[in-house]
Design goal:
This is Terminase. By secondary structure, the chain is of the alpha+beta class. It has helices at about 25-30, 35-45, 50-55, 60-85, 125-135, 140, and strands at about 85-105, 105-125. It has six helices and two strands, in the order H-H-H-H-E-E-H-H. It has a two-stranded antiparallel sheet with strand order 1-2.
Length: about 170
């Protein structure tokens, strides 16, 4: 992204491109937030075909989009994996603590203070997330539709003979 792109370089015919070098970082950052090509087109106030043209004409633009989308996808994949496998989350929790002082069996003084404690929260694995993960990572084992191949040696010259018995006559 550091390489400066000369706007409209090498063009001899047609309308000049609206592409600007600052679009590299803008597209990258927007893709980090999960933007699609359609979202980019709206953001840059162009049609989606123009985004595709820019990707073809400016390889740096395509690369910035890919990098942003790859990082965003990796974040989501990590979260999905944590959801599917279960996770432990470190958190801090504030608790109100009362301290009571007694002398000769009588309550003398009472104080309250807030203490922050580190806790570990265990999140159970999510079955739906695990199924989704496996269907996409190992579709040959986890897809819903199984393919079965049936082989037969029966030909049309030799059709099968079925012996049909009427069960009501027994």
């Amino acid at each position: 992204m550091a390489k400066k792109i000369e706007e409209n370089e090498g063009r001899t015919v047609g309308r000049p491109s609206d592409f600007k070098s600052e679009y590299l970082e803008l597209a990258y950052n927007y893709c980090l937030l999960g933007a699609t090509d359609k979202n980019l087109a709206t953001f840059f106030n162009v049609c989606e075909a123009t985004i595709n043209n820019w990707k073809n004409e400016y390889p740096e633009f395509l690369e910035s989009i890919k990098k942003g989308k790859d990082i965003a996808d990796a974040r989501i994949a990590s979260k999905l994996f944590d959801r599917a496998a279960g996770a432990e989350i470190q958190k801090q929790q504030a608790f109100k603590v009362k301290e009571i002082l007694y002398e000769n069996g009588k309550r003398v003084k009472e104080t309250e203070k807030i203490e922050v404690v580190d806790i570990t929260e265990v999140i159970a694995p999510d079955t739906t997330a695990a199924i989704f993960w496996l269907k996409n990572r190992k579709p040959e084992y986890w897809k819903d539709k199984q393919e079965h191949i049936v082989e037969s040696s029966v030909t049309m010259k030799d059709p099968p003979k079925w012996n049909v018995v009427d069960a009501s006559k027994k």
